[in-house]
């Protein structure tokens, strides 16, 4: 997955940081060059932050359950649990910034909110699999039910968290009032995508990647894979935009750039077994669409067991999970069609999950549907 672009950029910036005087001589404004290099240097060690006050209420293995108490009185009867994606990035996607926070959208509609923060795996956790992550999700759900006394909760899955939420609901429908699946690949054969093309590489290739991490899938490999889908953007255009923002002293633009890059470049390790099972079951064999094919702790996964109200979101410009892959969920569940809501956003993959416009319009529509389902 390491591309020639990555090698070139790493080499260039390594030389540039060691020879700042030489770089400055190439540009008429040394101060701007210095600022440019300082921004890039800060991004060498990205950090994860949460935008909204919260408390850790439960922790086990790679799960850390965070409670985001509603600053106002919670008027909604059922709490919300958000499952962020586990794609090598940090779970604070659900609470990205004060202006871009799914947590705060649900707060504004009176919901008490919980988020699963998935921690970077360590060597001892290398053999955790899909069954373990569904078990950990169940531990989170049961902890919320225990604390609140509410038997059924609303479950929100973002991207990978979406198919995880769908699997969980199919096994524990009695604990879920409403399922929300956002930009989640359910039927990967419903539309072509680059990530599905990449998944057709031999299984030995993915096993080799895990072996280089001593049984763990390194987040940097996953990040490089995502970047290579839009190589021009990630290896060239964004650096040009950064220079233009510095040239015109666009401080707000620089803040947005640094915040996003800080999140995007922050990577985590996944248990090797978990990663390989995802590649095999979701992206290679499309097993979510085949009842009883995936078996977790002796229980067969069958999406037909889902009969609660379901909300499906997809991004019109999503190059990672094209809308047909996400909307296909409705074809494999038992929920009556009148209880399935489909929302097509104007954004791409990340924009659907935490873009300003999507949060203001599309996710607001989600909360309104949940209010009706409560």
Automatic annotation (TrEMBL):
Keywords: Hydrolase. InterPro entries: AB_hydrolase_fold, DUF3141, PHA/PHB_synthase. GO terms for molecular function: hydrolase activity. It comes from the Bacteria. PANTHER family: POLY(3-HYDROXYALKANOATE) POLYMERASE SUBUNIT PHAC (PTHR36837). This is Alpha/Beta hydrolase fold.
């Amino acid at each position: 997955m390491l591309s020639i672009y990555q090698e070139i950029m790493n080499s260039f910036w390594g030389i540039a940081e060691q020879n700042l005087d030489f770089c400055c001589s190439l540009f008429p404004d040394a101060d701007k060059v210095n600022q440019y290099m300082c921004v890039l240097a800060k991004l060498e060690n990205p950090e994860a932050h949460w935008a909204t006050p919260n408390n850790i209420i439960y922790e086990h293995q790679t799960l850390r359950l965070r409670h985001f108490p509603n600053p106002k009185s919670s008027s909604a009867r059922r709490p919300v649990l958000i499952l962020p994606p586990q794609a090598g990035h940090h779970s604070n996607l659900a609470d990205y910034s004060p202006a871009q926070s799914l947590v705060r959208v649900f707060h504004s509609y009176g919901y008490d909110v919980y988020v699963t923060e998935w921690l970077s795996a360590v060597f001892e956790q290398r053999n955790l699999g899909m069954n373990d992550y569904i078990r950990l999700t169940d531990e989170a759900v049961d902890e919320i039910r225990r604390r609140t006394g509410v038997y059924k909760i609303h479950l929100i899955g973002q991207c990978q968290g979406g198919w995880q939420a769908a699997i969980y609901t199919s096994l524990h429908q009695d604990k879920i009032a409403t399922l929300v699946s956002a930009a989640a690949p359910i039927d990967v054969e419903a539309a072509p995508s680059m990530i599905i093309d990449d998944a057709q590489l031999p299984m030995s290739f993915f096993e080799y990647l895990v072996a280089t991490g001593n049984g763990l899938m390194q987040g940097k490999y996953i990040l490089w894979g995502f970047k290579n889908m839009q190589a021009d953007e990630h290896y060239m255009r964004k650096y040009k935009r950064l220079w233009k923002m510095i040239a015109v002293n666009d401080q707000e633009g620089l803040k947005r750039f640094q915040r996003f890059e800080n999140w995007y470049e922050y990577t985590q390790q996944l248990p090797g077994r978990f990663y390989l099972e995802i590649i095999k079951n979701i992206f290679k064999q499309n097993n979510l669409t085949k009842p009883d094919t995936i078996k977790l702790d002796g229980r067969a996964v069958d999406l037909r067991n889902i009969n609660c109200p379901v909300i499906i979101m997809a991004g019109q410009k999503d190059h990672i999970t094209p809308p047909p892959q996400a909307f296909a969920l409705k074809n494999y569940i038992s929920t009556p069609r009148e209880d399935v809501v489909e929302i097509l956003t104007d954004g791409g993959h990340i924009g659907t999950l935490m873009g300003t416009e999507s949060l203001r319009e599309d996710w607001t529509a989600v909360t309104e549907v949940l209010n009706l389902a409560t």
